[in-house]
Amino acid sequence: MNFKKLYENWKRQKIIRLLTTANPLTIEQYGANLLLPAFRRAAKKMPAYTERLKQKGINPRAIKTLEDFKNRVPIFGKKDFFVNTAIDKLCINGDLSSMKLTLSSSGYSGTYSFGINTEYNQKNIAFSIDTALEYVFKISKKKTFLVNCLPMGVKVPTTLQISETSVRADMALAMIKKFSPHFEQVLIVSDPHFLKKLVEEGIEEGVNWKKMNVNLILGEDWFSESFRMYLADLLGHDFNYPEKGIIGATLGIAELDLNLFHETIDTIRIRQAAQNDPKLRQKLFGPDVKISPIIFHYYPHRMYLEAGDNNELIFSMLSSHFLIPLIRYNSQDQGRIFSYNTIKALLKDAGYAQLIPELKLPLVAVSGRKDRCLALAGKNVSPEEIKEGLYSDFEVSSLTTGYFMLTNKENKGKLEIQLKKGICQTQAIKTKFEKAALKFTDVYLEVILYPYQDFPYGMEVDYERKFKNI
């Protein structure tokens, strides 16, 4: 008998019981109590942060209350720390000696940022990830095989039996075919585009997904609710029976931490209801929101989360074991934060009391980056609107890789879409694409379909990096 494994599982179960029974105000206050000590540690021991505060005229000793922190501590971003700053200056005491693993961002913004984990961090992250997997997928009750298809060598710290295939669909499918009969469920982790490719190619190769218990964990990029429903249709998932398979998302930021946020079946159902019911969507997100954001839980004891200007998410990492402890760090992701009691009241008032989450954690709804919008004829078109439309018609979904580019030349908008290999354009196909892709846009776009090999932006389509839609 593995007593260490039993003990770890007991600890996870204890935390889950706490998070489902505790007073939500107590959970949120616990994190707030860690904020000022975390700030003081970074201000005193992280050389680059000490210097930045000095440049801004901030005396850390004068920050004595939460209001002081919110009103006076400056917000910094990626370029403030990760351009022209030596990596040791970002570390506690300027010391890299406890470094165990380094992480890099995707470089999507044009600037790379870096995270560093110590051995202690690695163990904590693995425990945190396994606790989330336990709650969502019941990994202690089902023999589980995890296939990591994340790009760029991103590892998934976990105690599960695991395969690391990166973005090799052929390798991942070979692993799944060979090993899945020996497990009760399979978890596959990757970005949305690659998972679409993997599932579709699996069907072409005769993989009967509907006879397997396969769960997908989506990271790296925003996806529409219609995209989730498309994959659910291919896999044979029914969201009324999550034990037969779940398609959920996680959000991590290399310089902050992995699995900062994650979905549960409760948050998935809230998002589905919001996308289908304009009144609920308006109550949750405001009158002008056509596409429901992805709704996540987050852990107040791990981070203090704020919404800054333009609803950009501001992170303060709270652990005393972080080697790079970023405080009031602007991720440039746009989101809206809900306390547990707020979401509970909103759902009750809207007639959706049955959707109140079991976990007593706060929630954050993430809608994408603020700069991911095309201005056209005095209106904005977002990739999120296109994604929701493209996957609203499953036939259309099956004909494209999902990659597209929005351009504006002389105030004429173009939507250029890559077809899958072997798909030839016909007038009927183009008409279907126009109807689906423009379903949620307020302006007309010229829709241009390209054979797979002729897509002008194809050199960027390698599943190793994020694709810029604008």
How is this structure best described in words?
The protein has 470 residues and is an alpha/beta fold. The protein has helices at residues 3-21, 24-45, 47-55, 66-72, 78-82, 119-137, 169-179, 192-204, 225-235, 265-276, 278-285, 340-349, 383-390, 394-397, 427-437; strands at residues 99-104, 114-118, 144-148, 161-164, 185-190, 214-218, 247-253, 257-262, 294-298, 303-307, 312-317, 329-338, 363-369, 374-376, 379-381, 400-409, 412-419, 446-450. It has an 11-stranded mixed β-sheet, sandwiched between helices. α8 links the parallel β5 (185-190) and β6 (214-218). α1 (3-21) packs across α6 (119-137), α7 packs across α8 (192-204) and α10 (265-276) packs across α11. The longest helix is centred in the first third of the chain and has 22 residues, at 24-45. The N and C termini lie far apart (55 Å). 40% of the residues are buried. The model has no long low-confidence stretch (mean pLDDT 94).
